[in-house]
Amino acid sequence: MSVPHQENVDDAPEMLDADDALEEVEDAEGDIAMDSDDEQEEINLQNDSVAYFDAHKDSVFTIAQHPTLPSLIATGGSEGEGDDAPGKGYIFDTSPVVSRPVLPASYNADPSAAQQRSFELNSLFTIEGHSDSISALAFTLPRGECLVSAGMDGRLRAYQLAIDARNKASFNFVGETREVEEIHWLAPCPSEKYPNTIALGAKDGSVWVYTIDASDSSNPLQIVQTYFLHTGECTAGSWSPDGTFLATVSDDGSLLVWDVWGEAAARGLTHENGQTVVNLGMADQRFAVEGGLYSVAIDPKTSFVAVGGAGGAIKIVGLPRLGVDSQPMSSKQSKTKAKGADAGGSQGGSILADLQTQGDGIETLSFSPTNPLLAAGSVDGSVAVYDTSRRFAVRRHIREAHEDYSVVKVDWVRGLGDGWLLTSCGMDGVVRRWDMRGAAGTKESSMTKEWKGHRGDGEGGGVLGFVQGSTGERIVTAGDDGLVLVFEA
Fold this sequence. Notes:
Elements: H1 18-22, H2 36-45, E1 51-53, E2 60-65, E3 72-77, E4 88-93, H3 105-108, H4 111-116, E5 119-120, E6 123-127, E7 134-139, E8 146-151, E9 155-163, E10 169-178, E11 183-188, E12 197-202, E13 207-212, E14 221-227, E15 234-239, E16 245-250, E17 255-259, E18 276-280, E19 293-298, E20 304-309, E21 314-318, H5 331-339, E22 351-355, E23 362-367, E24 373-378, E25 383-387, E26 393-398, E27 401-404, E28 407-412, E29 421-426, E30 431-435, H6 443-446, E31 447-451, E32 463-467, E33 474-479, E34 484-488
WD repeats: 127-161, 227-260, 355-396
Region (Disordered): 1-40, 325-347
Keywords: Repeat, WD repeat
C-alpha cells in the first residue's frame, strides 16, 4: 500500500506496531513496591511525647511557662475565627500527665504504639482579643501574677492569675494598650524590687517598659520607660539576671543597654543621652555586623553581653559594674568616660571578643547558669559552645546539630547535669539534649537524647520554641505544625 504524502512521513507521530502492542514482557523479579512513601509515613507517625495539645488550628509561634507553677503553660499563634485569622492562644495544665514507664526497645520502636499512649490535654483558658497573630507571651516575674500577650497587631494585653482553694487556676482580663504597629518580643524583668514589669520591642525599633498593676482599673498597664534610639526593627531583648539593665538589638546593627531604673545614671556611668550604658552600632567598625543583629543575652554575673547577628557573627561587650563602692563622678568625668569604652573603669562598652565560628545567622544565645559557657544556635543548623573563662575559646562545635535546618532555640538545663546539659530545637522538627562535659565531641557523642513528634524536614513543620522548667525533666514544645507536645527527659 502506498503511503500518501511520503515526503512528510518523518513529521508524522510514531505509532506502535499492532504485533508489538500485544506482546507481554515478563518481569522475572516481579513488581518492586516503592517504599519511599511508606518510609515518610513512618517518620510522620513517630511520636515520643507523653502528652499533646492540639487546639491550635495553625502555627504555634510562642510558648511561656509559669515561673512557680511549671505545669501551667501558655501558647499563642496565628489561628483565629475570622477571615483575617486573628491571633489566638490557650492556657493548659500538664500536671494530669502521668509519667510514662520505661519500656523495652521493641515497644519504643513502634511509633503507632507510642502515639496511642500520648495523653490529650485540654484548655483552661482561651487568649483572645488580638486582630493578628500572637507573637509573644510571658508570665511576669518573680511570682507569675500576670500573663501578658503581645501581637503582630501591636496590642499588649494582660491577664491576672488567681488560684482557688482547690488549686484551680483562673485568668481575668486586666487591660490592654496599643502604642506600636507590631510587637516582636516580650521579656519579664526578674528583679524582686520591680515585680510584674515587662519589656517589649517593636517593629518600628522602639522599646517599651510597662508595670502591670491589676488593682488600678483606670491604668493597669503603666508605662515605666520608652526608648526610640534604634533606627531599624528591634529584633531581640534581654534583661540582666539582676534586673538592672535591659539589652536590646536591632536589624540596623545596633546594641543598646538601657539603664532602666537610673542606677547607673546615679553613679555617672551613662552616656550623654542619660539612658544607655552601652551604645554601639555600625559606625564603630570593630562592632559593625553587616545584615543586623538578631539575638542577645547577658551573663549570670552581669559582666558582659553577647549579641549574635548575620553571617554567624557574635560580639562580646563589657558592662559597667554597679558596686556599692562606686563613687559618683563629676559631669566632666562622666562625659569623658562615656566617650570612651571603659565607662567607670569597668569595661562598660568594651568589645571583649569577636567570634565567628558558625557560617550563618545567630538566632539564639544562652549562658549556662552555673558554668562559664555560652551556647549559640545558627541558621546553618549548628550549635557552638564557648568557654567564657578562657577568652571565649570554642569548647564544642556541633556542625550538624539539626542537620541543615535552622536552630531556633538553645537553653541550658538548670536542674540536671550540674549545668552541663543543653537543650536545642530546630526547623527539622526535633528537640535534642547535649552533654557539654569534655573539650571535644561529635554530634553522636555529645547528644544524650532526642525527641520527635513534630513535622519537620521542610514539610511545613519545625519546633518554634520550648520551655523546660527549672529541672529540665519535662519539655513542652511549640510546633509550626500547630501541635504542642510534652516530652519526658
